[in-house]
């Protein structure tokens, strides 16, 4: 566990958000310490993806504070782009740039946003592709890769920016079971290396294995925050227990 | 046949004017249409509204009305430009609306996730457009743009009504002397068809080259 007196890497305070009449985030408070892995679980529509997306302001919030590394997330503009460069994000649908090779996908942002020389970006990108096990796919286009390979490439693309924190928005929900394993393996090794991670997922095995804390959300509110052993022991609220009995039964 | 051969210089001059008007207004319409569509998809409400208004007005006013307005009304208001220049400007402004609509349909084919991924990586709006959206939209838009250019080619003939001596006007003048309408207009029609074919085939080739697998 990271030191508790350090300022949190991510801090949400009193965050509210509505989609029309739907109250998707209800007064959400959450701190994620540097190096901590927080796994957010909950039923569909509970607001967990929205919570994840508020951290880099892909979803603006109605009220409340969002801070990353002590800095309030700015409104749309150059300052927000700079902040987003430090926050890696992995999406459910991979979203690799379809018109560029895998290697280009990794190099574009470091070169264009960070201004790193092309040769250096390529060397670092190849090392990352090696790390996620798809170095042989560097010259391929995204559509030529399996879902699991695409998602590993997407993780590598986010890592290429050397982010302070990584957000995972249901990274395995669009994958076949076998591919889920290869993506979770990459994420687990990342967690072991001390990356600060916020992971929205339905993979309870990953939560148990890799999380420092599990956040359970329902109807837009955080119902419970607990270390995984405590969370899965089922000592929490009734709502948590009914969720757990539903997801852990099979 | 001799009606054509004897008047070849006049007809070729007309064809030259048609090609000149076509190429210049095509380049102008592509540039202006791109600017309009950037405004149309920008996050600035005023720009979006202005671009929307631009497209709506120009798509819903006949080109002939615009040509008559520019050629006969503007000089009255003190704006006098050479005839061919005026025709080129009108065609550019008119076709830019169609170019913008074609480009917008292309932009709509780019999945939203591509934009979110770019923004999440720290790309600015202009980088997102330049590096991610436009290159992908361009691939979907080659054939529709080819069709807009073919329509533009046909529309150059309308400039004959305001006095530009392009291919249709030159053909008409030759026919007034020779009175061999089938031969003369038939030949002009074949030239228009050949030009349209070149544009269509060119678009097809470009499309094949830039296609991306999804």
Automatic annotation (TrEMBL), chain A:
What terms describe the molecular function in GO for this protein?
ATP binding; ATP hydrolysis activity; ATPase-coupled polar amino acid-transporter activity
Q: Which PROSITE patterns match?
A: ABC_TRANSPORTER_1, ABC_TRANSPORTER_2
Localization (cell): Cell membrane
Q: Which residues form the signal peptide?
A: none
EC number, UniProt record:
7.4.2.1
List, alphabetically, the InterPro entries matched: AAA+_ATPase (IPR003593), ABC_ATPase_HisP-typ (IPR030679), ABC_transporter-like_ATP-bd (IPR003439), ABC_transporter-like_CS (IPR017871), MetN_ABC_transporter-like (IPR050086), P-loop_NTPase (IPR027417)
Kindly indicate whether the keyword NAD belongs to this entry: no
Q: Does the keyword Transport apply?
A: yes
Q: Which EC class does it fall in?
A: translocase
Cross-referenced Gene3D superfamilies, in alphabetical order?
P-loop containing nucleotide triphosphate hydrolases
- Family per similarity comment: Belongs to the ABC transporter superfamily.
Protein name per Swiss-Prot or TrEMBL: ABC-type polar-amino-acid transporter
TrEMBL record, chain B:
Q: Origin organism of this chain?
A: Klenkia marina
List the PROSITE patterns.
ABC_TM1
Q: Which NCBIfam families match?
A: HEQRo_perm_3TM (TIGR01726)
**GO-annotated biological processes:** amino acid transport
Q: Which InterPro entries match?
A: AA_ABC_transptr_permease_3TM (IPR010065), ArtM/GltK/GlnP/TcyL/YhdX-like (IPR043429), MetI-like (IPR000515), MetI-like_sf (IPR035906)
Q: Which GO terms describe its molecular function?
A: transmembrane transporter activity
Give the ABC transmembrane type-1 domain ranges: 15-203
Establish whether keyword Acetylation is in the entry: no
Note one Pfam family from the annotation.
Answer: BPD_transp_1
**Which cellular component, as a GO term, is one annotated location?**
ATP-binding cassette (ABC) transporter complex
Residue spans crossing the bilayer: 12-39, 51-73, 79-100, 148-170, 182-204
Entry membrane topology = Multi-pass membrane protein
Secretion signal, residue range per the UniProt entry: none
Protein's recorded name: Glutamate transport system permease protein
What the record says about family reads:
Belongs to the binding-protein-dependent transport system permease family. HisMQ subfamily.
Q: Which domain of life is it from?
A: Bacteria
């Amino acid at each position: 566990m990271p030191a508790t007196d350090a300022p949190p890497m991510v801090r949400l305070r009193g965050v509210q958000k509505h989609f029309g009449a739907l109250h998707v985030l209800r007064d959400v408070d959450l701190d994620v310490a540097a190096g901590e892995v927080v796994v957010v679980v909950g039923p569909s529509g509970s607001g967990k993806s929205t919570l994840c997306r508020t951290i880099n302001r892909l979803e603006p919030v109605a009220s409340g504070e969002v801070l990353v590394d002590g800095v309030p997330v700015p409104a749309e503009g150059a300052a927000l782009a700079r902040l987003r460069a430090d926050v890696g994000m992995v999406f459910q649908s991979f979203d690799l740039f379809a018109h560029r090779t895998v290697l280009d996908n990794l190099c574009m942002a470091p070169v264009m946003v960070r201004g790193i020389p092309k040769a250096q970006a390529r060397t670092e990108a190849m090392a990352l592709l090696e790390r996620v096990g798809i170095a042989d796919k560097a010259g391929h286009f995204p559509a030529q890769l399996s879902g699991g390979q695409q998602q590993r490439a997407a993780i590598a693309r986010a890592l290429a920016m050397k982010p302070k924190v990584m957000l995972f928005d249901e990274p395995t929900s669009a994958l076949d079971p076998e591919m889920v394993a290869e993506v979770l393996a990459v994420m687990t090794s990342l967690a072991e290396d001390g990356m600060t991670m916020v992971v929205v997922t339905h993979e309870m095995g990953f939560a148990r294995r890799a999380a420092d804390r599990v956040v359970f959300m329902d109807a837009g509110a955080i119902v419970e925050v607990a270390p995984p052993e405590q969370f899965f022991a089922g000592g929490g609220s009734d709502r948590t227990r009914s969720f757990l009995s539903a997801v852990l039964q099979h | 046949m001799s009606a054509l051969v004897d008047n070849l210089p006049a007809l070729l001059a007309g064809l030259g004017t048609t090609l000149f008007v076509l190429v210049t207004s095509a380049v102008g319409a592509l540039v202006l249409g791109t600017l309009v569509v950037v405004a149309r998809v920008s996050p600035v409400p005023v720009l979006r509204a202005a671009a929307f208004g631009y497209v709506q007005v120009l798509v819903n006013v006949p080109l002939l009305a615009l040509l008559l307005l520019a050629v006969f009304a503007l000089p009255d208001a003190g704006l006098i430009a050479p005839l061919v220049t005026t025709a080129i400007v009108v065609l550019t402004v008119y076709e830019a609306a169609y170019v913008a609509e074609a480009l917008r349909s292309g932009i709509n084919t780019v999945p939203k996730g591509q934009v979110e991924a770019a923004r999440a990586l720290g790309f600015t709006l202009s980088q997102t457009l330049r590096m991610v959206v436009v290159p992908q939209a361009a691939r979907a838009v080659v054939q529709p743009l080819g069709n807009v250019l073919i329509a533009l080619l046909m529309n150059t003939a309308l400039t004959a009504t305001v006095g530009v001596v392009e291919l249709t006007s030159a053909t008409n003048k030759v026919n007034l002397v020779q009175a061999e309408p089938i031969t003369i207009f038939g030949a002009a029609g074949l030239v228009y068809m050949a030009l349209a074919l070149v544009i269509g085939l060119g678009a097809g080739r470009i499309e094949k080259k830039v296609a991306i697998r999804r």
